[in-house]
Amino acid sequence: MTSIWNTQKPSTKKGSPWDTQGFQPKPTVQKEVNTPQPNTLQIEHVAKPLPVFTTIFADHVEFNKYMKQVILEHREKNPEDIESNVKAWHSSWMTHKENPKFQPLVDRVLSACTFICEGYFQCQKLEFSIFNLWAMMYEKGEHTIRHSHFPSDFSAVYYVDVEPGCAPVIFESKTNNDAAPQVGEPLILQPQNGMLAIWPAVLHHMVPATNGRRMCVSMNVDKYGRTDV
After folding, report:
1. Domain check: are 168 and 81 in the same one?
2. Total domain count, the chain
3. DSSP code for 5
4. Which of 14, 70, 76, 167 might form a disulfide with 210, Cβ 3.0–4.6 angstroms?
């Protein structure tokens, strides 16, 4: 099928009429069909503030003792690094499937997402599931590159053991490559032991080089039933 969206090359992705410069489909064998004129997909931006939800677990002292031991044991069994935006040790993306000891945290995060959905977004009867989950341990000088977690619905991080002066997470930091105009200042969130933060997964965020250690668990949360990668 030939694309009608601003390209001189035939679109070879079956069932998709969309194409913009820099987002070319992978070639497959298709019957070429001529189109009279390409169309252009324009992009406009709307300034809309998006929420970042935080809470401190009331029982975080005892809970973090448990979580810290779980993470240390998991790292001892899985010491290898994984290449990603996180420039520090982190476990596999499916840690919650590999290690059932993370389930108490999973349950709390899913409960919080349901509460947010009903109380803030006023949307009833939605169920959520963890799409992926990974534990991280940052040492001095380690960082995370700016990124987002689209197409998930929510992203979350829980801080298990963070030192004073450790790096914050910065939401929507300005870069020279941003296509959309920045509205307001970036949000700088300073980690605290026992803090859970949840935000819409489209928000870009980063962690600058840290001066203190950071042990935390991140995850992506989707409406129940997502199966794509």
Report:
1. yes
2. 2
3. B
4. 167
166: left (phi over 0), alpha (psi -120 to 50) or beta: beta
For residue 23, is it within any domain?
Answer: yes
User: What CATH number should be reported for the domain holding residue 214?
Assistant: 2.60.120.620
Question: Which distant-in-sequence residues (6+ apart) come within 8 Å of 183 by Cβ?
Answer: 47, 49
Considering all CA atoms of the chain, what is the largest pairwise distance in Å, rounded to the nearest integer?
A: 67
The reply to whether 95 and 196 lie within a common domain is yes
Name all contacts of 28-36 with Cβ < 8 Å and 24+ positions apart: 30/1, 32/2, 33/1, 33/2, 34/2, 35/2, 35/3, 35/4
Written as tens digits, the pLDDT of the chain (229 aa) is 554 455 444 444 444 445 444 444 455 555 555 666 888 999 998 888 899 999 999 999 999 999 999 999 999 999 998 889 999 999 999 999 999 999 999 999 999 999 999 999 998 878 999 999 999 999 999 999 999 999 999 999 999 999 999 999 999 976 655 555 566 689 999 999 999 999 999 999 999 999 999 999 999 999 985 555 4
Name the nearest CA neighbour of 179 among 20, 36, 35: 20
The length of the chain in residues reads: 229
**Judgement on whether residues 30 and 60 belong to the same structural domain of the protein:** no
Residues 175, 207 within the same domain: yes
